[in-house]
């Protein structure tokens, strides 16, 4: 009972707009997981935006936009903890990409690989300006193998 009271108190401390976003983000995480299971990556890749072949490129954001990106990331990570399905970095990245696009915030989705204990590990993370929306700031831990910008035309040369 104490846990339930604490969760309810935490929920009520959120801003009204944030409370309204929780259910849609939870549903989007489920849809992202279903997309990952049902569709091959080349189809998902088309939806991600303009792929950048060269070095990573990040957008510059105003303080207000950084605050919005940070808030969206916090809510996505919060809802990922409450899904009965796997909501690791990839579904979170897909949801972040959708939420940031709907909010009109430029962002970049990164895919990286590293070898640890003889095994390859993959990771996805999303940056909006200097804000790590999901997946943390993983540039030092992973070698970037894919980089998708939105809006795409700003990242292309």
Summarize the structure.
Helices cover 50% and strands 22% of the residues. By secondary structure, it is α+β, with helices and mostly antiparallel strands. The mean pLDDT is 88.
Written overview of the protein:
By secondary structure, the protein is α+β, with helices and mostly antiparallel strands. Helix content is 50%, strand content 22%. It is built from 6 helices and 5 strands. Strands 1-5-2-3-4 form a 5-stranded antiparallel sheet. β3 and β4 (131-134) form a beta hairpin. 31% of the residues are buried.
Q: How would the blueprint of this fold be written?
A:
Layout: H1 2-13, H2 16-38, H3 41-48, E1 50-51, H4 63-80, H5 89-102, E2 107-116, E3 119-128, E4 131-134, E5 143-150, H6 152-155
Antiparallel strand pairs: 1-5, 2-3, 2-5, 3-4
Instruction: Tell me roughly what share of residues is in helical segments.
Output: 40-55%
- Number of helical elements: 6
State the end-to-end distance: 57 Å
Strand order of the largest sheet: 1-5-2-3-4
The assigned structural class equals alpha+beta
Order of helices and strands: HHHEHHEEEEH
Arithmetic mean pLDDT: 88
